[in-house]
């Protein structure tokens, strides 16, 4: 167990590293981050500005100040001179990250001074989205290559920047990015959908709260992936890009709330009671409130709500880590697997929060870390849930075993191991039809106790019970009714021959070479209710008394009881 625990914690650190430090080749340009990076400078829009005038006045642009420090408004963004293309006649694709903006126009200046532009409002931006929520403009040169780019951004919230991650790409690079991202998103969607159906089916049967919370989390992640990937813009071309971004925020809030609910439900009931559970619930309510605020006031207060969302997102790992510390202190059986599966999402939360707050630079992989981290989480969380189900199954089996033991102890005579009187009567009452009752009484048992002591008498009772159990066929009830009185109840054909029974009892070897005998009373009759039982027992007891009166070591038979018409 110690070795397994060490392996799990090593995997946890590796999972965190996978979020914080993407591979170097990924940084160089794969998937959505393709092509050549473009350096940019910024300037506010002034009355009378024209694209040609701005191309001619690069001195008006600030190339040192971070874009997001300028606040919301309308801006010009000028690129550095573009590198000479390998093929002067090949089309170029200008790619950038989708941001909250009312409209944009991208101008490209050719070497011969010609300027061409492409305008897009919120809806036009949505129609230019590629996978990875990357906006792409395509320009085809007409004799002279393009040398510089100029953006006019209107209505920018400028929460992350104005033109984020601009890059130049070829047609082939753009297609390759779409193919690779399609594979990533479809793999995640297939994985999440499969786990959603599987866990929902399990919840329908087992009804564990953490399964339902996990299904809700997977549903939110699927909708978030649909939106954040840009695929929603293809499915709903009439939806504006800003509405798509707003939907992503709402799904992230819902996803965070359901993830924390899963955390609260996953551990044993006693682990998170008290302040850790209250802290998680507070953060859940905060995310729900922020989601409602996005729905009601998103377009009007986007910058403020984004900052509130980022701060709350940064608080989430603190609440989860507090839960993990409590689980460690209370020795939760599920701690290692939970920590392993949630390492990547926790790292993603911290990285995304720091990036949203301007404390980390933009990176395509940080911007898209949610899908990558949650892919890791869904894979490992499925293992954690399977382990949780295994533990619950073992707990259930142990509880059933203990219950069976308790029931058996309650129904069993502790000395002989036979049914006690109460259990015998309860099972006799469930019989239907005619039954034969045989009552046994050990002859002169008081003399046995006086001769060999009570411990010896107990041994006699155990040996007598063993003899009865040996001769009783399956389905025959065998019980110690009290003291030295025993009983057999069953169908007449299944009961042992009385002469064989008397002979077997005489043959029992006892301490000090003692021999015992037994008197037997038998009655046959219907057994459908308590009154039938009382008549059957009374007549068998009367027959037993007659056998004793006749000299013991023999059988007394009562007349069969009549069957009611």
State the gist of this model:
This protein is an alpha+beta fold. The protein contains 17 helices and 15 strands. The strands form 3 sheets. A 5-stranded antiparallel beta sheet has the order 1-10-4-8-7. It has a 5-stranded antiparallel beta sheet with strand order 2-3-9-5-6.
How would you describe what is shown here?
This protein is α+β, with helices and mostly antiparallel strands and 565 residues long. It folds into 3 domains: 242 residues, Rhopdopsin 7-helix transmembrane proteins, CATH 1.20.1070; 134 residues, Immunoglobulin-like (Sandwich); 137 residues, Alpha-Beta Plaits, CATH 3.30.70.270. It contains 17 helices and 15 strands. It has a 5-stranded antiparallel sheet. Helix 8 runs parallel beside helix 10 and helix 9 runs antiparallel to helix 10.
Q: What is the CATH architecture term of the largest domain? A: Up-down Bundle
| Oligomeric form | single chain
Shape: rod-shaped
Unreliable stretches covering 5 or more consecutive residues: 1-31
- Assign a percent range to the helix content: 40-55%
Mean pLDDT: 84
Strand order of the largest sheet: 1-10-4-8-7
Looking at CATH, which topology of the largest domain would you report? Rhopdopsin 7-helix transmembrane proteins
> Strand-residue fraction?
15-25%
Q: Count of helical segments?
A: 17
Backbone CA Rg: 41 Å
Distance between the termini: 69 Å
Number of separate structural domains: 3
The helix-and-strand class reads alpha+beta
Largest sheet: 5 strands, antiparallel
Given this structure, which CATH class of the largest domain is correct? Mainly Alpha
């Amino acid at each position: 167990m110690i070795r397994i625990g060490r392996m799990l914690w090593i995997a946890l650190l590796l999972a965190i590293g996978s979020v914080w430090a993407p591979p170097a080749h990924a940084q160089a340009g794969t998937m959505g981050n393709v092509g050549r990076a473009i350096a940019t400078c910024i300037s506010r829009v002034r009355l009378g500005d024209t694209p040609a005038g701005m191309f001619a006045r690069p001195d008006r642009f600030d190339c040192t100040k971070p874009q997001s420090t300028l606040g919301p408004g309308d801006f010009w963004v000028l690129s550095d001179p573009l590198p000479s293309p390998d093929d002067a006649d090949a089309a170029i694709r200008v790619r950038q990250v989708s941001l909250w903006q009312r409209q944009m126009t991208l101008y490209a200046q050719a070497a011969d001074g010609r300027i061409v532009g492409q305008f897009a409002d919120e809806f036009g931006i949505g129609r230019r989205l590629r996978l990875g929520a990357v906006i792409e403009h395509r320009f085809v040169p007409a004799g002279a290559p393009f040398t510089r780019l100029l953006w006019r951004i209107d209505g920018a919230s400028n929460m992350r920047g104005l033109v984020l991650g601009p890059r130049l790409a070829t047609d082939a690079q753009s297609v390759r990015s779409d193919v690779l991202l399609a594979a990533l998103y479809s793999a995640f969607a297939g994985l999440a959908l499969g786990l959603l159906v599987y866990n929902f089916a399990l919840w329908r049967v087992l009804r564990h709260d953490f399964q339902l919370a996990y299904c809700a989390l997977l549903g939110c992640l699927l909708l978030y992936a649909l939106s954040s990937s840009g695929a929603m813009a293809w499915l709903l071309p009439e939806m504006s890009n800003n509405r798509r971004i707003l939907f992503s925020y709402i799904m992230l809030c819902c996803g965070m709330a359901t993830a924390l609910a899963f955390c609260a439900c996953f551990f044993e009931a006693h682990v998170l009671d008290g302040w850790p559970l209250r802290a998680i619930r507070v953060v859940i309510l905060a995310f729900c409130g922020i989601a409602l605020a996005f729905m009601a006031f998103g377009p009007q207060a986007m910058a403020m709500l984004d900052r509130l969302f980022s701060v709350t997102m940064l608080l989430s790992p603190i609440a989860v880590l507090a839960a993990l510390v409590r689980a460690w202190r209370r020795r939760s059986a599920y701690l290692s697997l939970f920590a392993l599966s949630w390492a990547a999402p926790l790292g993603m939360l911290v990285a995304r929060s720091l990036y949203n707050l301007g404390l980390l630079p933009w990176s395509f992989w940080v911007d898209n870390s949610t899908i990558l981290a949650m892919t890791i989480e869904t894979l490992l969380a499925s293992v954690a849930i399977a382990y949780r189900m295994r533990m619950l199954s073992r707990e259930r089996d142990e509880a059933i075993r203990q219950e069976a033991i308790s029931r058996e102890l309650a129904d069993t005579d502790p000395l002989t191991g036979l049914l006690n009187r109460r259990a015998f009567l309860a099972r006799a009452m469930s019989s239907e039809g005619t039954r034969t009752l045989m009552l046994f009484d050990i002859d002169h048992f008081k003399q046995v106790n006086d001769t060999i002591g009570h411990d010896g008498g107990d041994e006699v009772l155990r040996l007598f019970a063993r003899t009865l159990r040996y001769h009783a066929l399956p389905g025959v009830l065998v019980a110690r009714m009290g003291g030295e009185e025993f009983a057999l109840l069953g169908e007449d054909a299944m009961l042992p021959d009385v002469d064989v029974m008397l002979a077997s009892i005489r043959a029992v070897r006892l301490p000090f070479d003692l021999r015992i005998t037994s008197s037997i009373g038998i009655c046959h009759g219907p057994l459908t209710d308590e009154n039938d039982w009382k008549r059957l027992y009374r007549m068998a007891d009367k027959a037993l008394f007659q056998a004793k009166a006749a000299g013991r070591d023999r059988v007394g038979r009562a007349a069969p009881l009549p069957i009611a018409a």
